[in-house]
Amino acid sequence: IEVFATLDYHPPKCKHCKGKQIKYDFQKPSKIPFIEIGGFPSLIHLKKRRFQCKSCRKVTVAETTLVQKNCQISEMVRQKIAQLLLN
């Protein structure tokens, strides 16, 4: 099962200089493995919004609790692996 999703929200303040950020572009979709759904493996194709600061020009990427920063393995899969290792 494949799910196509887009992560987009209002631009936050810049983490570096606290300046105003603008919506910049989308990142190439990440392929994030997810837990099985109905016995079928699932994959999320997630496009994340990028933001650029108008002051310092640094670019940041939208963040989600689905995956850790700079990671492409979902938290649900991490928890499932940890659970299987403990059993």
Automatic annotation (TrEMBL):
Annotated signal sequence range: none
A UniProt-annotated Pfam family: Zn_ribbon_ISL3
Highest taxon above the source species: Bacteria
Residue ranges of every copy of the Transposase IS204/IS1001/IS1096/IS1165 zinc-finger domain listed in the record: 11-56
InterPro entries documented for this protein: Transpos_ISL3 (IPR047951), Transposase_Znf (IPR029261)
Name assigned to this protein: ISL3 family transposase
Species name: Streptococcus pneumoniae
Taxonomic lineage: Bacteria, Bacillati, Bacillota, Bacilli, Lactobacillales
